[in-house]
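Design job #97: recover the sequence.
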């Protein structure tokens, strides 16, 4: 069985993330979206909120599941017997960063393979940090995030 994990912070989930998940779901027999919970990072949304949003957005994909991970991704992959790590990239800056991570992961576990998937061109400039900044000023997020996420962002910034 060709099983892959797609880890990330997904804070918030963007249209680019969903694009990668949908395309990967048509390639892999099973795809696990792994929500990172790094205690050293400050997130806008809790891991549970991020997992809930992604679960709702991909509910039609029967071969995709969502989980939360608060350990090293290689430890999670080993525990779950997943050997394939999927990473989304938008451009050279992303690739450079992801390449370094993949080398570190290979050092930690040489059985882990990393595959890079480029986003579709219409999502090329979408960054979670930019979306959060735009949302904090009540900017138009259409096309950048699904409506469910736009609503969650609006609620989050309204109640801050």
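Job complete. Output follows.
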């Amino acid at each position: 069985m060709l099983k892959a994990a797609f880890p990330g912070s997904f804070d918030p989930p963007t249209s680019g993330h969903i694009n990668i998940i949908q395309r990967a779901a048509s390639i892999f027999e099973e795809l696990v979206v792994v929500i990172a919970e790094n205690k050293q990072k400050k997130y806008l949304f809790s891991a549970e909120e991020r997992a809930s949003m992604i679960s709702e957005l991909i509910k039609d994909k029967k071969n995709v599941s969502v989980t939360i991970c608060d350990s090293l991704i290689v430890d999670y992959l080993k525990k779950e017997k997943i050997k394939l790590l999927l990473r989304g990239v938008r451009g050279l800056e992303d690739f450079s960063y992801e390449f370094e991570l993949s080398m570190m992961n290979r050092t930690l576990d040489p059985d882990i393979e990393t595959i890079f998937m480029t986003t579709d061109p219409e999502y090329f400039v979408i960054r979670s940090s930019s979306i959060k900044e735009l949302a904090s000023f009540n900017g138009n997020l259409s096309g950048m995030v699904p409506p469910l996420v736009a609503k969650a962002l609006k609620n989050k910034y309204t109640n801050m």
